[in-house]
Amino acid sequence: MIVVTAAVAIRRARSTTSWGIATMPPSLAHDVDPAAQRGRRPTRRRPRAPFARIVPHQEAPRLRSAGLQGTGRCTSNRSDNREQGGEHRPIVLSWLHRKKEEDRMYRNIIVDKRDGALVITLDRPEARNAMSVELQQEITQALDELEADPDLRAGIIANTGPVFCAGADLKEISEGVWDTPHAPDGTDYGFAGATKRYIEKPLIAAVNGKAVGGGLELVMACDLVVASDDAIFWFPEPRRGLTAAGGGSLLRAGQQLTVKRANQLLLLAEPISAQEALDWGLINFVVPGDHVLDKALDMAGKIALGAPLAIQYTKRTVYETMGYPPVYPNEGWDILEQYEKFTVESRDAHEGSTAFVEKRPPRWEGR
């Protein structure tokens, strides 16, 4: 892939926003040709970027944190790349990469398999990753892939841009076309195709920036959360005449937080910082922005050390027994013992003990 960086690209590229689509004139090849700049006849060359997205360097750390370095979306983060006037030089993504984007299966997310984890990166930064119908359908397809592939042990939901997710797409709501995805049998999957859908494998939210409204509901629907140190979490719904009910957070908040903290988050409708979210127990880790995805992958790697069935039934037991007292007997204990029987009688349980005795890593089969 060819990367073009030049001051003239900034002057000639037409871009409505810092993330907008710009059209680069064919004469760009002449303008950036060293021979032309020295007054000699320029070398004939193919225009490098007839269609390009201009990406400011200050956004490069966020793209890298979303795991996009090396994919053509982020090629440099040098703070000393400056043109006259002290402005940052842009990264101009080549036409070839734009063509690959057009040909890819998804238009609003980037899906990548990394070390046994499926990384689903929300990629509508120009819309603050607001959940459109199409974006939710694509997340649903990616989660189908996560569930179907036995080699994938965990899912990670990450983001490009400064906002993890700003909630629902208000434009589609105003047009009356917005809806949540549904299963083939008609079951509602909820906001982002995830808040009402139970995923057997652990889901990790890798939050860079702001998680607002429905974006925070998606975070709370995940099993583990790592956030950047500048992340913000906020339910503004009461100040808009609404409740944070669409994604189930009114149910989850009292389970994931103390009642007083849940009420503070939901009733005061004020944003809280990443450190506050960590102190409250809403999230698991806070790291610098460019380490968010690395930390999520590290968590996914540790999950993969466990047997698939053990992870699956541990997660189910935690959620299905939530609210039951530990006093025996009750229905909660019945659920626990039923799932324990599945794991104890599995081939992986035998492999685990055998591998321990033989002092070798276990070879899990998922059965």
TrEMBL record:
UniProt entry tagged with the keyword Nucleus: no
GO molecular function: lyase activity
Region Disordered: start-end pairs: 28-86
InterPro entries noted in UniProt: ClpP/crotonase-like_dom_sf, Enoyl-CoA_hyd/isom_CS, Enoyl-CoA_hydra/iso, Enoyl-CoA_hydra_C
Domain of life from the UniProt record: Bacteria
Protein's GO biological process: fatty acid beta-oxidation
Pfam families noted in UniProt: ECH_1 (PF00378)
Regions of compositional bias (Basic residues) in chain numbering: 38-48
Record key words, sorted: Lipid metabolism, Lyase
Family (UniProt): Belongs to the enoyl-CoA hydratase/isomerase family.
Name recorded for this polypeptide: Enoyl-CoA hydratase
Natural source organism: Enteroscipio rubneri
Taxonomic lineage from the root: Bacteria, Bacillati, Actinomycetota, Coriobacteriia, Eggerthellales
